[in-house]
Here is the input.
Amino acid sequence: MLTPLATFFSARDCTVPQIGLLQPADPFLDTAGEDLRRRIYLTQGPRGENLCLRPEFTIPVCLLHLSGEGAPARYGYEGTVFRQRQDEPTEFRQAGIEDIGEPAIAKADARSLADALAMLKAISPGARFEVTLGDQSIFEAVIRALGLPNGWRRKLARSFGSPHKVEALLASLGAPRERPNDLAPEIATALEHADAAALSDAIAAQMQANGYLAAASRTPAEIAARMLEQAALDNARLTQGHINELRDFLSIRMPLDRAGEGLVQFARRLDGGMEAVLEAFTTRVDEIRAHGVDPSVVTYDAAFGRSLDYYTGLVYEITVPGLTKPVAGGGRYDKLLALLGAPAPVPAVGFSIWLDRMEQVQ
Here is the structure.
């Protein structure tokens, strides 16, 4: 690899893999999130398989890692990606590092942020960079502490980083429930008492009466389970006090070196369960400092997330004053490799730099 970044990757013990321009589309469609899915250039292979022009490097690098021995490794990349974008070229260059399998989470997170800043400074030594940092795991710990059922927690977690989506869900959680009035009495009663066996029997009886065959559709037990899950979501409501607490959390924005204490003070308002994530947060701040990044010049924003579904913990974005769009972004994605076929979650963190945007930096 004969590029100016080759020395940068070598100094950090990065393998530089060859990633094809044409990629299987399904991994991106299944795991990357709505924002990326709608920007992908799709095509078909000679056997009718779904393919796409390479929209990013993280997923192909993870698939490559899974095809090897699975030992911890760092991967560097630089190349062209293809996405449908407004007001920007749809073919552009990215560079970055994916750090896969490192069990020391805080150390790997801090190294990722430090390397992203170092790469940016190597590209543009005189530029001033600003860092905004969020944490998906802190947000998820807060919504767990509010006692929401799993379905609502999943919905909110998927919306993290999109303020209008989170606000719409909060409005739903605060609104009175509209009860369906078109259910058979025995089904309505079973739902009211969350009686799975009675609900399954009532559904089976109704299916038989209407001439439906279970084998041709979902079984009564499957339908009952789905109805009970939906009923739990419908019945879940937050008090206005809890909604205000969640909004207060999302409004937290302060220098990273003071954010740990700010989060501890907020956590005292809840019923517990945040100790582990807060300890991990503090440990990561210490590691960031140890890796040469001053936490006082990093902004912690409790509402900040990124639009890719696979992020699970740390998320960050780096901007340059005067540019309207970020020049780099990254974060932790411990669940992604399991979604792509690993037998268990694999710790992983990485970042990408938009090299085309860096060309605008003085």
Q: What stands out?
A: The first helix runs from residue 6 to 11.
